[in-house]
Design goal:
By secondary structure, this protein is α+β, with helices and mostly antiparallel strands. α7 runs parallel beside α9 and α9 runs parallel beside α10.
């Protein structure tokens, strides 16, 4: 089931209003910034230091390819001329389908967009690199927005270029095609699919979406709201989790304290299954909703998460039951609690928490001496699970410092870098609310030989975590990865055990030499 959480990197606010809606409060929805004049020539030269930049990393099923095989980098902006988009696509084989009706069966960008935030009256704009190296991008419009597709296609300005690593497509789509005005605060619904269609037909095709819900043209909720902004752009990913037991589906909505009191509902079609307000508890703002499987039946596969009457996210009904109800590792946590009953660690201790790289650190206390430290790792864990159990195995100790290691398992199960950082932010919010004087150290994801295919995503996660840590004085980022790589750029083989994933004594010696001086300060 967790693959779903991995691929839910996105989901902006889906507002049930008409065009021209006022911008949402800061933190909600996708913000598309206003940009200066853009020369649509396929070069991307005008996008430096302006626009909203987003890199896509996986399909709706969590599938990924090698970064050199396919990586779409998108830039968004708007001005009086229209909605502007620049796609710089890394692609080892550029395959263009020259048949207009089959344009999306080749390397292409599909933008599904509507000037109405309920997603109605949408159109699909398909953009493809020009055949035979031509700079004229191929444009096709499909959908309900008008019968004269050819005339509408002529109104879209688009250019493309072949590059040494793939291709670019740059386009400007007039707002008049979307039946909306070009003004700050106006809102639209949108979705994007970037298609890589290497030679070999459907079996080699893969599509990376902007929002991780499929069939946007068949289901309006798969589109999400974006607001035109005068300010810097923003791409927001909410904290929504779902879990299945033998009797029920549980949905957790995590929010900032400012969202306390907002009504969260779960719907399927026209049926509302549960509704709860966001409440301050467990040192966070949470709404917990529950749906009986007997009531849900076997026909529903999608659930709508609605906040204050506005669709926030479309999620899949979990297909796999989770151990001991909502979260696994309950037995590990209970074991730590039993240990605490016998001898509660002293206040102000440094807590090391995270996945098996922490749990297996058997010499931690000796390695960190004379610092007082405790190990609260649980193998196989992911960032969101650490946040959930923090009330029981972190906060009660009132630690002065926390050393946090997660990301290995998150990435291997399909979670994208941006979502991992959002999960880490949720942990920080929870800890900082309960223990404002506690310092948190994020340890970088390590490069493991057995997971080398995930290393590019791990490096991206490390980069984003480091940038986030620099924004707060109570956060620090500790990079252990550089010291674990040899002169050829590969993980050092002699610091890992037989499984090529977990470290041996040499590996922990590296960690000790880097981490201890940082937390001793």
């Amino acid at each position: 089931m967790r693959w779903l959480l991995g691929i839910l990197i996105a989901a902006s606010l889906f507002i049930q209003l008409g065009c021209g809606a006022e911008a949402e409060e800061e933190g909600d929805g996708m913000k598309i910034p206003k940009v200066n004049k853009i020369a649509i020539d396929g070069s991307g030269a005008d996008w430096e230091k302006q626009g909203l930049s987003v890199t896509l990393h996986g399909s709706t099923k969590g599938e990924t390819t090698d970064a050199f095989d396919f990586t779409p980098n998108l830039n968004f902006g708007w001005n009086k001329d229209g909605l502007a988009i620049f796609a710089n696509v890394t692609d080892d084989v550029v395959h263009v389908n020259s048949l207009p009706a089959k344009l999306s069966n080749g390397d292409s960008i599909e933008l599904i967009v509507s000037g109405k935030t309920d997603g109605s009256d949408s159109m699909k704009v398909i953009l493809s690199a020009g055949a035979d190296g031509k700079d004229e991008a191929v444009v096709r419009i499909e959908g309900r927005i008008g019968a004269d597709s050819q005339r509408n296609e002529a109104r879209v300005t688009a250019k493309s270029q072949k590059t040494g690593t793939g291709y670019t497509v740059e386009a400007s789509i007039p707002f008049s095609l979307m039946h909306m005005d070009a003004k700050s605060g106006a809102a639209l619904a949108m979705q994007i699919h970037t298609n890589d269609y290497d030679y070999g037909g459907d079996k080699n095709a893969i599509s990376y979406p902007l929002y991780y819900t499929s069939k946007a043209t068949e289901s309006s909720p798969a589109m999400q709201v974006a607001t035109l902004s005068e300010k810097t752009g923003k791409w927001y990913a909410p904290d929504i989790k779902s879990y299945k037991t033998k009797d029920s589906v549980f949905v957790y909505y995590y929010a900032d304290e400012k969202h306390a009191g907002k009504e969260v509902a779960i719907r399927g079609g026209q049926e509302e299954w549960d509704r709860k307000p966001v409440a301050i508890r467990e040192n966070a703002a949470i709404a917990q909703l529950q749906i009986s499987l007997a009531k849900l039946g076997g026909s529903s596969t999608k659930l709508d998460v609605v906040v204050d009457g506005r669709l926030r996210q479309v999620i899949d009904v979990p297909s796999v039951e989770t151990e001991d109800g909502k979260y696994p590792y309950e037995n590990d946590i209970k074991a730590y609690e039993q240990r605490d009953k016998k001898a509660l660690p002293p206040e102000g201790v440094t807590v090391f928490i995270g996945s098996s790289s922490i749990q297996r650190w058997s010499t931690l206390e000796k390695d960190m001496a004379p610092l007082q430290v405790i190990n609260r790792g649980f193998g196989g864990s992911e960032a969101y699970q650490v946040t959930h159990f923090a009330d029981r195995i972190v906060i009660p100790y009132k630690p002065k410092k926390i050393v946090f290691y997660e990301g290995d398992n998150d990435i291997s199960k399909g979670t994208l870098p941006e979502q991992i950082v959002e999960e880490c932010k949720a942990f920080v919010r929870k800890i900082h609310h309960a223990l404002p004087g506690t310092k948190i150290y994020f340890v970088s994801i390590k490069p493991s030989p057995s997971r080398i295919k995930d290393w590019e995503k791990s490096k991206k996660t490390n980069q984003l975590l480091e940038e986030y840590a620099k924004q707060h004085e109570y956060l620090e980022f500790i990079d252990v990865s550089a010291a674990m790589i040899d002169e050829k750029g590969n993980p050092k083989a002699d610091i890992f055990g037989p499984d090529r994933l977990h470290m041996n004594e040499k590996g922990y010696d590296i960690w000790t030499s880097i981490i201890r001086p940082r937390i001793e300060k």
